[in-house]
Every structure is written in C-alpha cells, then in structure tokens.
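The following record pairs a protein chain with its ligand, magnesium ion.
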Amino acid sequence: MATKISVSNAFKIFGDNPGAAVELLKSGASKNDIQEKTGQIVGVQNTSFEVKEGEIFVVMGLSGSGKSTLVRMINGLIPATDGKIMIEGSDIASCSRQQLRDIRRRKVAMVFQHFALLPHKTVADNVAFGLKIKGMGAAERRKKAEEALAQVGLESWADSYPDELSGGMQQRVGLARGIATEAEILLMDEPFSALDPLIRRDMQEELLELQRSLKKTIVFITHDLNEALILGDHIAIMKDGRFVQVGSAEEIVGQPADDYVAAFTADIDRSRVFTAGSVAAPAEAIDLRSGGARDAIERMQALGRDALYVTDGERIAGAVTYRDLTAAAREDDGAALKEALISDYPAASRTTQLFELYPLAQSGLPIALVSRRGRLEGVVSPEAVFAKLAGSEEEAA
Ligand SMILES: Nc1ncnc2c1ncn2[C@@H]1O[C@H](COP(=O)(O)OP(=O)(O)O)[C@@H](O)[C@H]1O
Ligand SMILES: [Mg+2]
C-alpha cells in the first residue's frame, strides 16, 4: 500500500524562541523543564510515523499531550517548527499557500469534536458546504450531499435543520461532510468525545463499517484507549508531545513499552483485543488415510496433549481424545481411529476475538482454527485463552 502521510522528526514549539527549545529537547530536557526555563511550550517533539493508504492510524493521549497540534500540522494549519511532513509525497512546509489550500480542499478533510453546523442551513447544505468552496454546481452538490448522508444513515434528514437533530446525529453530519469532500485522507480530532457512551459505541461501529467500503486513510485522535484499540490498525500513545509507543492493539496491550502505557492498558478488556491467532498452537494433526489410533496416541504423548485433530487430506475430519482412544485401542487400528472421531468439534478462525471463544472452550476439546478453505491452521487450548487473559503467557513463552 502506498504511503499517504509521512511525518519525520516533527517538532512544534509554541513561543518566541522555538530554536532554543528544540536544542534543549535534543539534549534531553523535558517539556516541563523547557517551559520553566524558557517559557516555550512544547506542542509536539521528535515525532515520526507513516500512514498507509486505507489505514486507520489512531493517536491516543491525555489532554495537552499534543494530539491536536499534530493533526493541525498534518493539514498545514500549523507550520512545524522542525521536521518534515509529507502528504502523498508533497512536502507541506515547502508548499505555496495556494498549494496548501488545494491540499486542504481536495486531499484532506477534517472532522472535529465540536463540529459546528451552521444553524440556518439545512443538513444537506451543511454537508455540501465544503463543496461550494471547491466550485461545484448546485445540483451536483446536492447529489453528493445526499449520497454522503445516505452513507451515515441520515438520508431522510437532508432538509431538516441542525437543531432538530440529536448530538449523535449532528456528529454524523460532520462525518458526512468529511465523506462528501471525497478527500482520501480524513483527519478526525476527537470526533466522538462529546457523545454519550452508547451512541459513541454505535459511531465507532459505524465508522468501521463505513471504512470497509470507503477505504479512506484516517488519522483518528482520541483520549480513550478503548476507542483507540477498537478503531486503530496502528495506535500511537502520545505523552508530552511525543510518541511513547506505536503498535497494533495486540502489541500495545500485550507488550506495553513502559509503565505509563501499562497503566492505561490495565483496565482494558483483553478478551476483545486479542484474537484466537495470538494464542494458537501449531496445527498438529494426524491424517486418517495414513495413521491409526496407535499413531494418534503416540503423537498426543509426544505433544503432551489430550486431544488431537484428524484430517482427511486437506480437510478436517474431526477430533479424537486420548481417553477415547486408549479405551478403544484394539485389533483394527484404523477403524478405532475412525470410530473415536468427534465430528462436532469447536471451530473458530484466527481473527476470532477471545471472548467469542468462551462458549467453545466449554466443549473440553481444543478449538480448531479453520481457514476459509477448511484447512486446520492451529489449535487453541482453553488454558492458553485464560493465560492470555490473565497476561501470564509472556513468562511461559
Ligand atoms: N496556540 C498555542 N499556544 C501555546 N500553546 C499551545 C497552543 N496550542 C496548544 N498549545 C499547548 O501545546 C500542548 C499540546 O496541546 P494540544 O495539541 O491541544 O493537546 P491535545 O490535543 O492532546 O489536548 C499543550 O501543552 C497546549 O497547552
Ligand atoms: Mg485536542
């Protein structure tokens, strides 16, 4: 995938002597030190990352950590003090004003937390607002606005006025406005932070759903780690203007870079972050066509497992347990294996979230991870699931 946004060693210092502050930062001074000694305020320091096409890159941090400053630098609203910011290969710093305006009109759309709808304009006109600036005709603007409203489920509200809409619906209009611009990059600065938790949860789902068809490149800002983990393909944890850690949800929660990140992740529902693939053991199986009960027993002994999957060539035939086989082992070895076969075994995929495995774990059999083509990709033992949830698997591995 193409790189849409590339930020390298970006700094933003607020104050009249930013150069001095950058030098101090480079020699190891903290944001607080610098503020006390020089009065300069560190907005963003030495931040580097890339966002690939179609990806949701989430920046998570507490209030004042530099998130808004960072997104404003990306769309050129705030010039960086130092470092480089590239949008689709063009350097924001060396763009003319005209080029910058062009980028903001055509390439980058912004959705804010307090998305101000114009109260005397209809919902459709609010959505189409950015299009008029682009010089688009009235009929086409209306069409684009209606399409965007349909995507966020508000098509029947096109001719209503903002004050007829709930907070959640207004925020959706904000999203529709971002979509209508057809900009490939969406910068979303805490767009859901003012919404109450249930509506917020809906909006997160809706954004993910939309993203499946839109495939925009999104930088999403939040101060809520849960939201970050739900939405982010990659997540950056920001503190005092810099990234403390960048990684996938599983990496952030599984291997927090320091105590600061660990403290955030402590309350996270791990069963919704980790997937079956992260606790899978290799797909050991015995082939029905070449092995019998005795082979299966030997394999289980060697592996230290009390159940084993049986395949019939590529496909899974079922599972057998050590207990059944040792009880049944007799003359016809092949027939014994077939007879002991349990065909309604628990199955999931690598991307199934751990909480969805709970009911499957009750069968007493290891869970088969099955590919879309019916192949066994791994097995998950209930013990591995619970170790992951407890965060105790790192020592074991
Ligand atoms: N225009 C400004 N002038 C001076 N300091 C600012 C300005 N904008 C932001 N800051 C400071 O920069 C830091 C980062 O702010 P901000 O990017 O708004 O954080 P966040 O969006 O994470 O809450 C804060 O310490 C804030 O006080
Ligand atoms: Mg902010």
